[in-house]
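A reminder before we start the practical. When you read a complex entry, don't treat the lines as separate problems. The point of joint prediction is that each chain is placed relative to the others, so the output describes one connected object in space. Small molecules and nucleic acid strands, if listed, are placed in the same frame. In the example below there are two entries. Take a minute to note the order of the lines before looking further.
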Amino acid sequence: MTTATNASTVTPVKADVTSGQPLLAVEGLKVHFPVNRGFILQRTVGHVKAVDGIGFSLKHGETLGLVGESGSGKTTAGRAILQLTKPTAGKVTFEGQELTTMKPDAIRKMRRRMGIVFQDPYGSLNPRMTAGNIVGEPLIVHRLFTSKAEYREKVAELLQVVGLSPAMANRYPHEFSGGQRQRLGVARALAARPSLIVLDEPVSALDVSIQAQVINLLQDLQEQFNLAYIFIAHDLSVVRHISDRVAVMYLGKIVEIATRDEIYKNPLHPYTKALLSAVPAPDPVLERKRERIVLKGDIPSPLNPPSGCVFHTRCPIAIDDCKGDVPPLREVGPEHWVACIRV
Amino acid sequence: MGQETAAQKVQIGAGTVIRPSPGKGVARRAMAWSGRYPLLPGLILLVMTVCGVLAPWIAPHDPIRPNYAAIAQPPAWSADGTSQFLLGTDHLGRDMLTRLVYGARVSLMVVLISTTSGMLIGTILGLVAGYFGGNIDEIISRIVDIWLAIPFLLVAMIIVIVLGQSFPLMLLLLALLAWSPFVRNVRAEVLSLRERDYVASAKISGAASARILLKHMLPNVTNTIMVIATLRVGQLILAESILSFLGVGVPPPTPAWGSMVADGRNYLNTAWWISSLPGVAILLVVMAFNFTGDWVRDRTDPRLRQLG
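Here is the predicted structure of the whole assembly.
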């Protein structure tokens, strides 16, 4: 990415960009939701394994695309990394500090360094707050200003950074369009100058033309503030455009993770192949020639995932051995990891 | 004017779109208004408030001192009535109109003190129960369940008998009757608000629980609170009347509508107005509050909000 160029323009970044220490390291992250039955005497009859042991690392200013179909645990993974959902197991090391064992108050302070942008631009802004207060709330919470005038100035600056007029600060969310609201969400996520922003399908609720604007805005901001993104999406073209590396999730597990070019040109896991084959080609000639791998059946229930490789029930190349052990992620090429015994 | 527009509203029927007939000026505007605003209930509540606040200045007679020269005078419109006592006098010769006007004070106090304090307590408990969940929620919710199972009148009567009748005690008892629905509704609302993205976003911003409760939850439950409050007020005024009627509410000789109804019970054959007039006052005010409550609820329902 552009790490070298923007090192000088960046606001305080604790961990040294050049030291090679990752901004974020996730190890064996699990989020299991208990399923309770019974009216008075509740007993746990099982667990929904929404996220089941994922791991990856993220450098300053890097974008990791997290893709997978609905129900694969992408959103839960994003929330668990930010400690919005308490992880069941695993480690999340952010800026050298272990988040999962932190006290709530310490996490609150750490959150200055994180941001989140949600999919729904209507539900993610408090309808009773003005745009200025929505954007400025992180500043208030972390006391990042010394005077009212400075506060207003910072809010105006944030609005300008995301392409909104500072004059809009007194409006309420319902007075904005979907794209503008998403810009407000981005401005809010930026306010406390974080180093990591989780983008949870930030453009999938927007028109295609607006999508492009917001994606470009996100890329500009990344360069300007040396932001690391976890970009959760199911739109593979958008992910290809913005990501440095891409992780493919299936039923709570990462099945393949590689650099963007590698994964799009040389997908190895059968699930990745099937996913990529579903992307329509803009050229009608190519589109006609395009080979589609259609998976049979639905994604299995995360309450009772298949044994061994969770994908074997739908896999076109599965063999009996796939039902045995859970395949670990193996490095098959430079920065290319895949969890499949058949490749 | 209020009655006229109400009559027109009835003719047109509830729920239809009101199209002002080709009329002019005030009448036309009043008609358009009557479809959107509860004019008649509003008027009743306004009159009650004015009476309650300005009672000493607008009431024609002394509300407490008996006047044995004018016992049980009928209202002015009946054959034996005099214009001196427009609504007649009671069994002690006190002016009915005066006592009705003073009685509005009691209802007003119930609204201001009992409902408001019940609303405050209930809202705080509801917010806390809904937001923190777990054991706190369990304890608060169970207390509310138990509370709702207590026969209020019976317990209130026992407490009054033990502690002695007084106005503040009655307001306290009514406040204790008022709080529980606020807890239930606010809690339910908070349970759903808690899962909203903007609350998650506030957490990621580093906001502490107090801030999330006050800035993100409370402003979004005020609609619900206002609806319950307006609907609850009517019930509380009724409860006050019942307590006063049973002689455990406002201590005599302070005029309260409930105790006035009780006073006239023995004279229903000879002087119907002593019981009936305060009864009508209670009816009008309670209905006015209920209609206003319905209106507030309709107005704040997001599915109907566009219409107004």
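Discuss with your neighbour: Confidence is low (pLDDT under 50) at residues 1-18 of chain A. What might explain this?
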